[in-house]
Structures are given as structure tokens and as C-alpha cells.
Amino acid sequence: MGLSTGYKKIRTAVFISGTGSNLKSLIKFSKTNKSPISIDFVLSNNSKARGLDYAKKYDIKKKVLNFKNKNLSEKNLLSVLKVNKIEMICLAGFMKILSKNFIKKFKGKILNIHPSLLPKYKGLNTHKRALNNKEKYSGCTVHLVNARLDSGKIVLQKKVRISKNETEASLAKKILVQEHKLYPKAILKVFNL
Ligand code: GRF
């Protein structure tokens, strides 16, 4: 990723839209000695996102920008990230698509977690589609973010077996447990740790 870890941890922002369970796992990881990153900022496009409570609990700066005017929200966001000296971004259940221009500003420094074995099932409703297609396996992927949706270089994946009576909800739950382990592992990998 071209970032040197050195002594100081890399100041990282996490973007969320909902529950924030991945945010929680990233915060916990960031507080361990082996973590190359610290979580210093949380952005949500949704003021009701439950994940915002973690920012409060762990005393992390947070901001809500509704992205109704994407241009304006991103402009605002870029300046806040600059003020907070943010060097890296982890998308964690963030439901807005960032513009090419924004991604360029953080080129190679934005990660995303997606609940499928990419390149399969990009976009929404991944579990439903995997079940409809009678897949034997699904899983999760951490990848670098580029201008095309869920298409950047894959950092790490974890496969899970789909059981006989699997439902969308049970599969989502099973994969989420793995997501919480995969994201920290992928960050270590990105930093060659
Ligand atoms: C996760 O399944 C993530 O892969 C997807 O949205 C979900 C977010 O969950 N993009 P949470 O908000 O981290 O609990």
C-alpha cells in the first residue's frame, strides 16, 4: 500500500451506514499492539446508523454527511479528513458509492469488505443470489477500492460452506462472524505484517 508503519499508527477513517459490527471489530483490533492502524474518524451517511454509537463509546470523532448532494458531501468530507490527518479509509457496510475523483485522492488507500467471494456477486443481495444459484460456498472478501464497484484488487478472502437449510439470515450471520476476523487480517497483509 506504500505506507510505512514506522512507530506511529496510520490514522484511519471507517465509513459506515448501519450496524457497524465491522467497525467494532476494527476498533478492537486497532487497539492491539500488532495493529498498524488507529481508528481516528467515523463517517456515516445515515444519522441513525447504530454503528455511530461505537464512535461515541470509544471517543472517536464522527461525522454524518447524507450524500444527497454527493459532490458537496465529498468536498466536505475531503476537507474533514485532511484536518484529521486521515491517511487510510476502511469501508465497512458503507452503502454509498464514492466518486472517481474521491477515490483518486486516496488511491490505493481505501479498503472495502464485501459479503461474497468476489468476483462473484458484486453489489447488493449477495446471500439471496448465492442461495438462488445453489452455491455450495460463499464467503467474504476484503479488496482495494477502485472506480468500479466491488472490483479492486483482492487482498484476502474467507470461504464458508452453505449448509442444506441455509437461509439468507443464517448465511449473513455466518459470514459476518468471518468478516470480523478477515478485515484485521487483511489490514496486516496490506502492510506486509
Ligand atoms: C457486512 O456484511 C459487509 O460486508 C456489508 O455490509 C455488512 C455491514 O455490517 N458490506 P456491519 O454494519 O459491519 O455490521
Topology of helices and strands:
Blueprint: E1 10-16, H1 21-30, E2 37-44, H2 52-57, E3 61-64, H3 70-83, E4 88-91, H4 100-105, E5 110-114, H5 126-132, E6 137-144, E7 154-161, H6 168-190
Parallel strand pairs: 1-2, 1-4, 2-3, 4-5
Antiparallel strand pairs: 5-6, 6-7
Helix pairs in contact: 1-6
Helix content: 25-40%
CATH class: Alpha Beta
- The strand count comes to 7
Low-confidence stretches: none
Main sheet properties = 7 strands, mixed
The CATH architecture would be 3-Layer(aba) Sandwich
What's the overall geometry?
globular
Q: SSE order in H/E notation?
A: EHEHEHEHEHEEH
Rg: 16 Å
Question: What's the assembly state of these chains?
Answer: single chain
What is the domain total for the residues? 1
In CATH, the homologous superfamily goes by the name Formyl transferase, N-terminal domain
Describe this structure in words.
With 193 residues, the chain is of the alpha/beta class. Helices cover 34% and strands 23% of the residues. It has six helices and seven strands, in the order βαβαβαβαβαββα. A seven-stranded mixed sheet has the order 3-2-1-4-5-6-7. Helix 1 (21-30) packs parallel to helix 6 (168-190). 38% of the residues are buried. The model has no long low-confidence stretch (mean pLDDT 96). 5-O-phosphono-beta-D-ribofuranosylamine is lined by residues 16, 18-22, 51, 92-93, 113-115, 176, 179.
